[in-house]
């Protein structure tokens, strides 16, 4: 069975794998969503995978063609996010609206970015980020993908 996502019209496929979707709270901040993830962290011991689905940059109003160069604002935000995550500056990521270059342009609304905060928090104590995929689409959509594990 498939249904459309009310936020961005993507299609969700429902399978026999148990899924419990969480709604992000756009009126809250990154720290709230990180702490929401921290509350889910004990589920890792039960074999539960927390998967955040979003986009490292997401501005539909500034989309271009795939063959266009990546705008500087998107490149700057994406590089800041990568550097912050890989260096373990998670407080900066939680406060991205104050810390990141071009944050409001990269994410005019946060619903496609907060899943990253939940997934990061769900890692538990001493998270470690790893970039596992990076690509661009429609000029400004960064599909950087990160895996979060514990340092231990």
UniProtKB/TrEMBL annotation:
Keywords: Metal-binding, Oxidoreductase, Zinc. One of its GO terms (molecular function) is zinc ion binding. InterPro entries: Extradiol_dOase_DODA (IPR014436), Xdiol_dOase_suB (IPR004183). CDD domains: 45_DOPA_Dioxygenase. Its cofactor is Zn(2+). The keyword Cytoplasm does not apply. Gene3D superfamilies: LigB-like. Residues 17-148 form the Extradiol ring-cleavage dioxygenase class III enzyme subunit B domain. Belongs to the DODA-type extradiol aromatic ring-opening dioxygenase family. This is Extradiol ring-cleavage dioxygenase class III enzyme subunit B domain-containing protein.
